Automatic annotation (TrEMBL):
Keywords: Dioxygenase, Iron, Metal-binding, Oxidoreductase. This is Fe2OG dioxygenase domain-containing protein. Residues 136-244 form the Fe2OG dioxygenase domain. PROSITE patterns: FE2OG_OXY. Pfam families: 2OG-FeII_Oxy_3. Its cofactor is L-ascorbate. The keyword Transferase does not apply. It comes from Prorocentrum cordatum.
Length: 262
């Protein structure tokens, strides 16, 4: 609307997306050097939050019973979630290609789903734990693994560059929620750290993809994988928290790709 019919929105000054995306790009970063350690240390003192420290360097924590029954029901609701699709990768030319790295089904939370009061409350709760505003997030990504499905080792923030022209910048935290118990298999494992976390209904795990001392550098120690589900199915949800305000960036049409600022 802003681009096609700006006069209607009294937004002629926004037609050229360069200035508005520059504004988004210049908004404060979600985490400054030192903030990740502080956030995790503070998390341990939050009353009513059950935090199990799985690793301190890099930080990996498990939050037992993080989700309420209402949130679990909501996140499992097909009407909210939309249809499952086989996970795919993008090739260099922006085309969708069959992924050899993963075999999972994926669905995304659309506008209706993201703006639902249950989602908004959930994002606000996670944001309080992380001390980051929910504007600094991607839409929820739902995952379903049936027997034999997996996701091989990968990093959630593989393409960090110091290119400040990305309005939404890169992923800094993964907040990963489990919606069910898996009878066998399906753990989330960090092969470099010898850590394996069993899915537990309603629990969440959290880790940073970047270093505390420099949140613009990927911490490859948090490379992780989803081990194959051996029995039953695994339902889970990703919420990625980003260094720039991804929600504003998307709403204003600023692509994830760098923009050539003049
Ligand atoms: O399913 C899991 O345990 C991990 C999923 C994951 O790493 C991802 O979606 O990026
Ligand atoms: Fe991942």
């Amino acid at each position: 609307m802003l681009e096609v019919c700006p006069q209607t929105c009294n937004a002629c000054h926004l037609v050229d997306k360069t200035p508005r995306c520059r504004q988004v790009r210049e908004m404060p970063s979600a985490v400054k050097p030192g903030a990740i350690n502080q956030t995790f240390e503070r998390m341990l003192r939050i009353k009513g939050l059950s935090v199990e420290v799985i690793s301190r360097d890099p930080w990996i924590v498990k939050l037992a019973n993080f989700l309420t029954q209402k949130e679990i029901d909501f996140l499992k609701d097909e009407q909210i979630r939309g249809p499952w699709k086989q996970a795919a990768d993008m090739d260099g030319g922006g085309n969708t290609v069959h992924s050899t790295n993963r075999k999972t089904e994926v669905a995304w939370c659309d506008c209706h789903c993201q703006n639902h009061p249950v989602s908004r409350r959930l994002f606000a709760r996670i944001g309080e734990v992380l001390r980051v505003h929910p504007h600094y997030t991607e839409a929820m990504q739902f995952l379903r693994y049936t027997e034999g499905m997996y996701y091989k080792p990968h990093h959630d923030s593989p393409h960090i560059s110091r290119n400040v022209n990305h309005a939404c910048k890169h992923r800094i935290y993964t907040f990963f929620m489990y919606l069910n118990d898996v009878p066998q298999g399906g753990a989330t494992a960090f092969p470099g750290l010898n850590i394996s976390i069993k899915p537990e209904r309603g629990s969440a795990i959290l880790w940073p993809s970047v270093y505390d001392h420099d949140p613009y550098v990927a911490d490859i120690r948090t490379i992780h994988e989803a081990l194959a589900v051996e029995k039953g199915e695994k339902l889970s949800v990703n919420v990625w928290w980003t260094q720039g305000p991804r929600v504003l960036s998307d709403n204003l049409g600023c692509d994830a790709a760098p923009i050539n600022f003049r």
